[in-house]
C-alpha cells in the first residue's frame, strides 16, 4: 500500500485548500517556525481517529477549524483527505468536521465508520497511535514510552491484534455460554420441582374425570325422566293458556279502533313535540353558528389588520432599500470613471518611468568607466542617493496619504452632518407618531374595558338565562308530571280502578238507587287516613244503596253476569243512629277521638259514619291503646294513628302495613289541582323573566358590535401608525449605525494621518542627514572634470524626475486600489440590496393576494352571519304556530284514553286467571330447561328421554350423590394439570438437550482460545526475534560499537509481558534510557522505528523534526537510513536541516501568508538539473 496524496482544507492554519502529492522516496517539508508544518502531522493523526486534544495540540475540538484572518473568513468545516494505492486500486479516506460539531468519515466517497477504516489499515503499522507517525519532540518520547506501550507497537508489527480480537470475541462467547449454562441449570431445577408438584395434581385430576364420567352416565337417565314428566305438564298448561288468550284476543278486537285513533293522535302529538324539539335544537344550532361566525369574523379582522400593517412595513423598507440602491449605483459609476482615469494615468507614468530608467542605466554604465576613487565616492553617493530617494518616496507617499485622508475626512464630516440632520427630522416625526399612538391606546383601552364589562355582563346574563331555562324546564317537567298524575288519578276515580270487578259492574250498570262506594262517601282528615283505612279494611269497597230492593237487584245482576260478589249497605236496614259514648274516654291520655266524630260523610248520608265506625276509637300510639283497653275495659275497637289495631275481644293486629289510597284519592286530586295552578303560574313568571333578560342581552350585543367596529378602525389606524413608527425607528437605527460606522472610519483616518505625519517628520530628518553627508562628498569631488560634473548633474536630475514619477505612480496605484476595494464593497452591497428588494417584492405580492383573500373571507363571514340572524327570527315565528296545534291534539287524546280505559277493565279478570296459569307454566318451563341444560352438560339427548319408575329414579339419585361426595373428597382439582404435566416434561427434555449443546460449545470455545494463544505466542516470538535482531543492527550502525536489545519481562507469559529496551553506548556502561541525552534518545527512537519498518513496513512514515537533536555525524547516518529504506516506504520528513533537504526526492515549502499556510512544491530532480545547467 502506498500513500499518494494528501488534501487539507479549513484545518487549523490551512484556511485555503492545499494538495500535497506524495512521491515515492523522501518527501521533505520545510518552512519557518509557525508556518504550519506540524499541522500536517496533526491533520494525518486527526484523519486516523485521534481524539486527544493534547496530541493534536488543541484546547477544544472546534480548534480544528481555521479561525479566519483579515482577508479570509472563518472556516465552516475542516476536511482532511488521503489517497492510497493498493495493488493498483485507489483507497480514499476522508474526515469532515462541521461547525455544528458533527464528524463524518468517507471511504471512497461513501459514508463509513472509523472502525471500517481501522480494519483496512489493521496490521499495517498505520494509524494515530502507531509508529508510522512521530510528532515534534516525540522521537525521544517514543523511547520513554512504558514497556506496555512499546509492547503494543511490536504487537501491531506482528499482527497479533487479530488474534486478540478473536480471543476476546471467543471469551465473550464463552462468558455467555457459562451464563446460559447457569441459567439452564436454575431453570431445570425449577422445572423438576414443578414436575413433582404437577404429578400429584395430574393423578387427582384423572380420578376426578373418572367420577365425572360415571355421574354423567347416570344424569342422562335422571334428567331424562324429569324432562319427560314436566314436558307433559307443560303441554297441558300451554293448552289452557291458549284458550284464555283466545278469549282475551276477542275482547281486545273491540278496543282496536280506539287504539288506532289514539295512536294516530299520539303520533300527531309526538310529531308536534318532535318538531318543537327540532325547532329548539335548530335554534341552538343557529345561535352556536352565530357565535362561531362572530368569533371567525373577529379573527379574520385581526388577521387582515396584521397583514395590512406588514404591507406598510415592507413598503417602507422597500423604499429605503431603493434609495440606498440608487446612491450606491451613482457612487459605483463615479468610482468606475475614477478608476479608468487612474488606469490611463498609471500606464502613462509607467512608460515614462521605463524610459527614464533606461536612460539612467545608460548613464550609469558610462560613469562606471571613471576612476576607482571616483567610483567609490560615487558608489557611496549612489547608496546615499538611493536611501534618500527611498526616504523621499516614503515621505511623498505619506504626504499623498495625508492629503487623500484629509480630503476623505472632509467628505466624512459632511456625511455625518447630513445624516445627523436627517436623524433630527426623523426624531420629530417619531415624537408626533408616539403622541398619536398614546391617544389611540387610551381610546382602545377604554373600549376594551367596556368590551370586557359587556362580556362579563353577557356571561352573567347567559348563565342567568341558562339557570332560568333549567328552572323552567324542571318546573315544566314537574307540571307535566303533576298533570299526568292528576289525569291518571282522575281516570282511576272515574273508572273505579282498584275496586273489584263486581263493584265496577254495579257502578257502571247505573242502577237506580245505587249511591256509591263507601270510600267515595267519606271525607277523612289526612292525619287519620291510616287509622281509618285499617278500621274499614275491605268495607271501603262496600256499596251504599237506598234500600234492600236495590241491593237485591244488584245481587241478581251479579249472579247473572258471573262478575263475582259484592257487599251492599241498604240504608233502610242498617242502624244509622249515633252511638252512645263515654265522655271520660275523650279526655284520656293519647285519645284522638271517636272515629264517627272525626270522619265526615257526604251530604244526605251523615248517619253512614255511625254505622261504619260505631264506637271505634282512634289513639296516638299502640301503648296508649293498650293502657286504655286495660284501664277502661272497653268493648270497642281501638286503632293507633300508624294503624296498630286492638279488637273488641282484645286481640292485637299490627306491624307494617301498606295504606290503600281509596279513601284519600279525592283529597289528593284536589291537592294536585291546586299544585297545577301554582306551578303553571311559576312557569309563566319564569318565561317573562327570560324574555326581559334576553332583550337586555340583545341590547348589550348591539352595543358590543358597535364598539368592535370602532375597535377595528382604531386597530387599523394604530397598526398603520405602528408600522410607520417601526419604519421610522428602523431608519433612525440605520442612520445611527451609518453615523457610528462613519465616526469609526473618521477615527481610523485620523490615526493613519498621525502615523503618516510622523513618517514625514522622520523621513525629513533622515534626508537632512543624508544631504549633509552628500554635501561633504560633493565638496571632496570638486576637482572632477566638467564633463563628469555635467553627467552627474544630469543623472541627479534624472533621478529626481524618476523619484517624482515613482511617487506619482505609487500614489496612483494606491488610489486605484482604494477605489477598487470600495467599488467591490459597493457592488456586493448592490447585489445584497437587489436580492433583498426582490424578496420584498415577492412577499408584497403574496401579502396583497392574502389581503384580498382575507377581505373576501371577511365579507363572506359577515354575509353568513346576517343570514343566520334572519333564519333565527323566522324559526322563532314557526315555533309559535306549532305549539298552538299541539295543545288541541292533547285534548282529543285525553278523551280517547278515557274511553279506552273503560273498555279495558272488562278483560282484567281474564288476565288475572291467565297470570296464574303463566306462573304455573314458568315453573314447568324452568324444570324442563334445567333438565335440558343438565342433559347437554353430560352429552345427553332430550329426544331419547324416557320415564322411569319411582324405585329406579330414587336409586339414580342416590348414586349421583355418592359420586359427587367422592369428588368433593378429592378437594380442589386442576384439570389442566394433566396437559401441563405433559408439556412440562417435554420442555424439561428440550432444555436438557440445550444444556448438552452448551457444554459442547464450552469445550469447543476453550480449545479455540488455547489454539489462538499458541498461534499468537509463535507469531509474537518470531516478530520479537526479528525486531530484536534489527534493533541490534541499527544500534551498531547509528552508534559505532554500541549495542542494544529488546526483551520480554522475565517470569511472565509473553502475551502479557511488557517489552524493555536495553542500550549500551560505546565507552559507557549500560544505562537507563531516561539518563541519555536528547540526541541519544532520538537515535535510539530512530533505531526502534527502522527496526519495526524492516519487519512490517508502513505505507508511510511521518517524522516531524526527528533530526532536531542530531549532530552532523548522526544526521548523515540518519540520512543514509532514509535513503536505504525509502525504497520500501515513503518518508515524509519535516526538517530545518539542509543536509536532509538536499536528499529529498520532493520538497514542499510551507509559508504563512495573511494568516494562511500555503504549500509550494519543488521537484528536487528538476531543481538539481536546472542548477547544473546554470
From TrEMBL:
Subunit structure of this chain's protein: Homodimer.
GO molecular function ontology, one term from the record: ATP binding
Annotated binding of ATP, by residue: 32-39
Subcellular localization, as worded in the UniProt entry: Cytoplasm
Record-linked Pfam families: SMC_hinge, SMC_N
Domain SMC hinge: 512-629
Gene3D superfamilies, per database record: 1.10.287.1490, 1.20.1060.20, 3.30.70.1620, P-loop containing nucleotide triphosphate hydrolases
Gene: smc
Coiled-coil portions: 160-201, 234-471, 725-759, 844-920
Keywords: ATP-binding, Coiled coil, Cytoplasm, DNA-binding, Nucleotide-binding
GO biological process, one term: sister chromatid cohesion
Family: Belongs to the SMC family.
Signal sequence interval, chain numbering: none
Keyword DNA-binding: yes
Keyword DNA-binding in record: yes
Organism from which the protein derives: Mesoaciditoga lauensis
Name of the protein this chain belongs to: Chromosome partition protein Smc
Record's comment describing the protein's domains: Contains large globular domains required for ATP hydrolysis at each terminus and a third globular domain forming a flexible hinge near the middle of the molecule. These domains are separated by coiled-coil structures.
Biological role: Required for chromosome condensation and partitioning.
GO CC annotation: chromosome; cytoplasm
Family matches, as InterPro entries: P-loop_NTPase (IPR027417), RecF/RecN/SMC_N (IPR003395), SMC (IPR024704), SMC_hinge (IPR010935), SMC_hinge_sf (IPR036277), SMC_prok (IPR011890)
Amino acid at each position: 500500500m502506498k500513500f499518494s496524496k494528501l488534501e487539507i482544507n479549513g484545518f487549523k492554519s490551512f484556511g485555503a485548500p492545499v494538495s500535497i502529492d506524495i512521491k515515492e522516496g523522501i518527501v521533505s517539508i520545510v518552512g519557518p517556525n509557525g508556518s504550519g508544518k506540524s499541522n500536517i502531522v496533526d491533520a494525518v493523526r486527526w484523519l486516523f481517529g485521534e481524539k486527544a486534544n493534547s496530541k493534536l495540540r488543541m484546547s477544544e475540538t472546534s480548534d480544528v477549524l481555521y479561525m479566519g484572518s483579515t482577508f479570509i473568513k472563518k472556516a465552516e468545516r475542516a476536511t482532511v483527505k488521503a489517497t492510497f494505492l493498493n495493488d493498483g486500486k485507489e483507497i480514499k479516506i476522508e474526515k469532515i468536521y462541521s461547525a455544528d460539531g458533527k464528524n463524518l468519515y468517507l471511504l471512497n466517497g461513501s459514508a463509513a465508520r472509523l472502525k471500517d477504516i481501522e480494519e483496512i489499515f489493521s496490521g499495517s503499522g498505520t494509524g494515530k497511535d502507531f509508529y508510522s507517525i512521530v510528532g515534534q519532540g516525540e522521537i525521544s518520547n517514543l523511547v520513554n514510552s512504558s514497556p506496555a506501550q512499546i509492547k503494543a507497537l511490536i504487537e501491531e508489527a506482528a499482527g497479533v491484534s487479530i488474534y486478540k480480537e478473536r480471543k476476546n470475541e471467543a471469551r465473550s462467547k464463552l462468558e455467555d455460554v457459562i451464563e446460559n449454562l447457569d441459567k439452564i441449570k436454575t431453570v431445570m431445577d425449577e422445572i423438576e420441582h414443578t414436575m413433582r408438584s404437577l404429578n400429584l395434581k395430574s393423578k387427582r385430576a384423572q380420578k376426578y374425570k373418572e367420577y365425572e364420567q360415571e355421574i354423567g352416565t347416570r344424569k342422562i337417565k335422571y334428567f331424562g325422566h324429569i324432562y319427560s314428566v314436566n314436558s307433559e305438564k307443560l303441554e297441558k298448561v300451554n293448552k289452557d293458556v291458549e284458550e284464555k288468550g283466545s278469549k282475551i284476543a276477542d275482547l281486545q278486537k273491540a278496543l282496536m279502533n280506539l287504539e288506532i285513533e289514539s295512536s294516530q293522535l299520539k303520533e300527531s302529538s309526538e310529531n308536534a313535540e318532535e318538531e318543537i324539539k327540532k325547532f329548539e335544537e335548530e335554534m341552538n344550532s343557529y345561535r352556536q353558528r352565530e357565535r362561531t361566525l362572530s368569533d371567525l369574523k373577529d379573527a379574520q379582522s385581526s388577521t387582515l389588520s396584521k397583514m395590512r400593517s406588514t404591507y406598510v412595513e415592507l413598503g417602507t423598507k422597500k423604499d429605503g432599500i431603493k434609495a440606498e440602491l440608487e446612491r450606491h449605483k451613482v457612487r459605483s459609476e463615479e468610482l468606475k470613471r475614477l478608476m479608468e482615469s487612474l488606469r490611463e494615468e498609471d500606464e502613462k507614468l509607467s512608460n515614462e518611468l521605463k524610459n527614464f530608467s533606461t536612460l539612467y542605466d545608460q548613464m550609469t554604465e558610462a560613469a562606471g568607466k571613471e576612476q576607482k576613487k571616483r567610483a567609490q565616492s560615487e558608489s557611496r553617493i549612489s547608496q546615499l542617493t538611493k536611501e534618500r530617494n527611498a526616504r523621499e518616496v516614503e515621505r511623498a507617499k505619506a504626504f499623498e496619504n495625508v492629503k487623500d485622508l484629509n480630503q476623505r475626512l472632509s467628505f466624512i464630516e459632511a456625511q455625518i452632518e447630513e445624516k445627523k440632520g436627517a436623524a433630527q427630522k426623523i426624531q420629530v416625526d417619531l415624537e408626533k407618531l408616539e403622541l398619536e399612538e398614546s391617544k389611540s391606546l387610551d381610546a382602545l383601552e377604554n373600549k376594551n374595558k367596556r368590551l370586557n364589562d359587556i362580556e362579563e355582563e353577557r356571561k352573567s346574563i347567559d348563565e342567568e338565562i341558562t339557570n332560568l331555562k333549567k328552572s323552567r324546564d324542571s318546573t315544566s317537567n314537574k307540571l307535566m308530571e303533576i298533570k299526568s298524575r292528576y289525569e291518571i288519578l282522575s281516570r282511576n276515580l272515574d273508572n273505579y280502578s282498584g275496586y273489584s270487578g263486581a263493584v265496577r259492574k254495579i257502578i257502571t250498570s247505573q242502577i237506580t238507587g245505587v249511591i256509591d262506594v263507601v270510600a267515595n262517601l267519606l271525607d277523612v282528615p289526612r292525619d287519620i287516613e291510616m287509622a281509618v283505612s285499617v278500621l274499614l279494611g275491605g268495607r271501603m269497597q262496600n256499596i251504599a244503596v237506598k234500600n234492600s230492593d236495590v241491593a237485591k237487584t244488584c245481587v241478581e245482576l251479579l249472579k247473572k253476569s258471573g262478575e263475582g260478589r259484592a257487599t251492599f249497605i241498604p240504608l233502610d236496614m242498617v242502624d244509622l243512629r249515633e252511638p252512645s259514648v263515654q265522655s271520660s274516654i275523650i279526655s284520656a291520655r293519647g285519645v284522638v277521638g271517636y272515629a264517627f266524630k272525626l270522619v265526615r260523610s257526604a251530604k244526605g248520608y251523615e248517619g253512614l259514619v255511625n254505622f261504619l265506625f260505631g264506637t271505634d276509637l282512634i289513639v296516638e300510639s299502640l301503648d296508649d291503646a293498650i293502657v286504655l283497653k286495660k284501664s277502661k275495659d272497653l268493648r270497642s275497637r281501638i286503632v293507633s294513628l300508624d294503624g296498630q289495631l286492638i279488637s273488641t275481644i282484645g286481640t292485637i293486629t299490627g306491624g307494617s302495613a301498606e295504606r290503600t289510597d281509596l279513601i284519600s284519592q279525592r283529597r289528593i286530586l284536589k291537592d294536585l289541582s291546586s299544585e297545577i295552578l301554582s306551578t303553571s303560574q311559576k312557569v309563566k313568571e319564569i318565561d317573562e323573566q327570560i324574555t326581559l333578560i334576553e332583550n337586555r342581552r340583545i341590547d348589550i350585543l348591539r352595543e358590543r358590535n358597535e364598539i368592535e367596529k370602532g375597535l377595528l378602525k382604531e386597530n387599523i389606524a394604530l397598526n398603520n401608525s405602528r408600522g410607520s413608527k417601526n419604519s421610522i425607528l428602523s431608519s433612525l437605527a440605520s442612520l445611527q449605525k451609518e453615523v457610528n460606522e462613519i465616526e469609526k472610519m473618521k477615527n481610523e483616518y485620523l490615526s493613519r494621518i498621525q502615523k503618516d505625519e510622523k513618517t514625514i517628520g522622520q523621513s525629513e530628518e533622515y534626508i537632512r542627514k543624508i544631504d549633509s553627508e552628500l554635501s561633504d562628498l560633493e565638496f571632496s569631488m570638486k576637482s572632477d572634470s566638467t564633463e563628469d560634473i555635467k553627467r552627474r548633474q544630469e543623472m541627479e536630475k534624472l533621478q529626481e524626475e524618476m523619484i517624482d514619477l515613482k511617487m506619482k505612480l505609487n500614489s496612483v496605484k494606491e488610489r486605484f486600489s482604494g477605489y477598487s476595494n470600495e467599488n467591490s464593497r459597493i457592488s456586493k452591497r448592490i447585489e445584497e440590496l437587489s436580492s433583498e428588494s426582490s424578496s420584498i417584492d415577492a412577499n408584497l405580492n403574496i401579502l396583497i393576494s392574502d389581503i384580498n383573500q382575507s377581505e373576501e373571507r371577511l365579507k363572506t363571514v359577515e354575509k353568513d352571519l346576517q343570514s343566520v340572524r334572519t333564519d333565527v327570527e323566522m324559526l322563532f315565528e314557526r315555533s309559535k304556530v306549532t305549539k298552538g296545534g299541539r295543545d288541541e291534539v292533547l285534548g282529543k287524546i285525553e278523551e280517547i284514553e278515557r274511553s279506552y280505559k273503560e273498555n279495558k277493565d272488562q278483560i282484567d279478570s281474564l288476565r288475572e286467571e291467565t297470570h296464574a296459569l303463566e306462573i304455573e307454566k314458568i315453573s314447568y318451563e324452568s324444570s324442563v330447561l334445567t333438565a335440558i341444560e343438565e342433559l347437554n352438560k353430560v352429552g345427553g339427548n332430550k329426544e331419547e328421554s324416557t320415564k322411569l319408575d319411582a324405585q329406579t329414579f330414587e336409586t339414580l339419585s342416590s348414586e349421583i350423590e355418592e359420586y359427587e361426595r367422592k369428588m368433593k373428597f378429592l378437594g380442589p382439582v386442576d384439570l389442566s394439570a394433566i396437559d401441563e404435566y405433559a408439556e412440562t416434561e417435554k420442555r424439561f427434555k428440550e432444555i436438557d438437550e440445550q444444556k448438552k449443546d452448551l457444554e459442547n460449545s464450552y469445550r469447543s470455545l476453550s480449545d479455540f482460545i488455547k489454539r489462538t494463544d499458541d498461534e499468537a505466542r509463535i507469531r509474537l516470538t518470531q516478530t520479537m526475534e526479528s525486531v530484536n535482531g534489527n534493533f541490534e543492527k541499527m544500534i551498531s550502525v547509528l552508534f559505532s560499537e554500541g549495542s542494544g536489545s529488546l526483551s520480554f519481562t522475565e517470569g511472565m507469559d509473553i502475551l502479557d509481558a511488557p517489552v524493555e529496551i536495553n542500550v549500551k553506548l560505546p565507552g559507557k556502561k549500560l544505562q537507563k534510557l531516561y539518563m541519555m541525552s536528547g540526541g541519544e534518545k532520538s537515535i535510539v527512537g530512530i533505531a526502534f522505528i527502522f527496526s519495526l519498518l524492516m519487519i512490517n513496513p508502513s505505507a508511510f512514515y511521518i517524522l516531524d523534526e526527528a533530526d532536531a537533536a542530531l549532530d552532523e555525524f548522526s544526521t548523515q547516518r540518519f540520512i543514509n537510513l532514509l535513503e536505504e529504506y525509502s525504497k520500501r516506504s515513503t518518508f515524509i520528513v519535516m526538517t530545518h536541516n539542509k543536509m536532509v533537504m538536499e536528499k529529498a526526492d520532493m520538497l514542499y515549502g510551507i509559508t504563512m501568508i495573511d494568516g494562511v499556510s500555503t504549500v509550494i512544491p519543488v521537484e528536487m530532480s528538476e531543481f538539481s538539473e536546472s542548477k547544473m545547467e546554470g
